[in-house]
Amino acid sequence: MPRHPELTILSRNTGEAAFPTLPATDEIILRVSGEVQNPLRLSLGNVFDMPTANLSVDSMVCSRHRKRVQEPTTYKGVLLKTLLMQAVIKADKPIYQIPFYVLATNSQGDACLFSWHELFNTPVGEQVILAYSKNNQHLCSESGYMCLFATSDTYLLPRHLKGVNRIEVQRATPCKL
């Protein structure tokens, strides 16, 4: 049962409250792995227990059609950098000297990419959310219970990932020319 009772799943057909179809509290829905000291295996209940971020988006532009596609919306979830701080990135020297990247993926093989510096050293980090609700309704679809996106991005699609189930931290290796 969700720990946020103010969130209600509404039926798309009738608009009335539907029975929650959220996974059991102990079902693992998200893994954080790679170059981290504390790999995370999180249930939706674990995510609900984390510090909550509320981000409002006035509108977004579809990168494919270049048209505004969304009305003002409020998302509730967890900032990506909050998850990464819990996982603790491994570093053998000051972390700002190591080129890390964060790759988020879903079960369909879609992915989006962020750099460590972008998340922790720029204002973008305060706008990258792993959302579990939109306008106080759980994100509950065939593609998953959470989506990851950067609300500061101009265009919607490049870094809007539905059904996120894995976050992986890796070191970027320089190319030898």
CATH architecture assignment: Alpha-Beta Complex
CATH class: Alpha Beta
Would you identify the CATH H-level superfamily?
Oxidoreductase, molybdopterin-binding domain
What fraction, in percent, of the residue positions are helical? 10-25%
- Mean pLDDT, to the nearest integer, reads 80
What's the overall geometry?
Answer: globular
- The rounded distance between the terminal residues' Cα atoms is 54 Å
Continuous helix count: 3
Structural class: mainly beta
Uncertain stretches = 1-20
Q: Please, how many domains?
A: 1
The succession of helices and strands, N to C, reads EEHEEHEEHEEEEE
* Largest sheet geometry: 6 strands, antiparallel
> What's the number of extended β-strand segments?
11
- Radius of gyration, Cα only, in angstroms? 17 Å
CATH third-level topology = Sulfite Oxidase, Chain A, domain 2
Topology:
Layout: E1 28-34, E2 40-43, H1 44-48, E3 53-57, E4 73-79, H2 80-87, E5 100-106, E6 111-115, H3 116-120, E7 128-134, E8 137-138, E9 147-150, E10 160-162, E11 164-171
Parallel strand pairs: 1-11
Antiparallel strand pairs: 1-2, 3-4, 4-7, 5-6, 5-11, 7-8, 7-9, 9-10
